[in-house]
Design brief:
Elements lengths: L3 H12 L6 E9 L5 E2 L2 E7 L13 H9 L3 H7 L5 E5 L8 E8 L4 E10 L4 E9 L5 E6 L1 E3 L35 E2 L19 H4 L6 E7 L2
């Protein structure tokens, strides 16, 4: 989770660094059979930055990304300490691949990636704080996470995006939310619709088993 005390430390550390930044190509491959990734946030940063911690509550900025796919709040929160930060626009469907070039410090830099998975209530794909390679390329298989900020009712009325067209960010927290970030456990058979007749997501089409993405980071210089 983004921490303001970290920001002061990171700025001082970064300001004193004489090591030039270099370019890295970050490639994200969606390996799910049915999930789509919303626009993907890619950030390089010092080692003390972290966008979430398992077992702890999600920040409001991460909640917005996980429930609505909006990377803006998290971008703003990280912009003061990031070495470089960008969002790959557009949706990334099953089997599709997207790449972006960002700069970072090969001596002490890290890279993180995050995007909402749709159609879900608050699940997201993320690579949380991987060290930038000094040379060549590194690859990581990454799981889905659950932000714990919205009940996983699989109800299209509560899920944004082209499949459902429902609401994104919801008010909370409430008693049905898990309340902390945890590994996503896929979708479950809840029937075709709820008591109010709202369509529910079919796990036969949209379920997953971790990992959900392959991310490759390649030094270009």
């Amino acid at each position: 989770m983004f921490n303001k005390s970290f920001a002061t430390m990171a700025l001082a550390l970064f300001a004193g660094s004489a090591v030039a930044q270099v370019d890295y190509e970050v490639t994200i491959t969606n390996i799910t059979p049915g999930q789509t990734f919303t626009p993907q946030l890619v950030v390089t940063h010092p080692g003390d930055a972290i966008i979430f911690r398992l077992g702890e509550p999600a920040s409001p900025e991460l909640e917005m990304l996980a429930e609505s796919g909006d990377t803006g709040p998290l971008t703003n929160a990280l912009s003061g300490v990031a070495m470089d930060i960008t969002t790959i626009p557009g949706l990334l469907g099953p089997g599709e691949q997207a790449s972006v070039v960002v700069s970072g410090n090969p001596g002490r830099g890290f890279v993180s990636v995050a995007a909402m998975m749709i159609p879900t209530n608050d699940s997201f794909v993320a690579m949380n704080r991987m060290k930038l390679p000094r040379s060549g390329a590194v690859q990581q298989m990454v799981p889905a996470y659950d932000a714990g900020t919205e009940y996983n009712d699989q109800n299209c009325a509560n899920i944004p995006g082209p499949t459902c067209g429902g609401e994104g960010n919801s008010p909370g927290p409430n008693d049905t939310d898990e309340g902390f970030v945890h590994i996503g456990n896929g979708m479950h058979e809840l029937g075709d619709e709820d008591a109010q007749g709202n369509q529910l997501i079919d796990p036969k089409t949209y379920d997953w088993r971790n990992s959900v993405a392959r991310i490759t980071v390649r030094r270009m210089q």
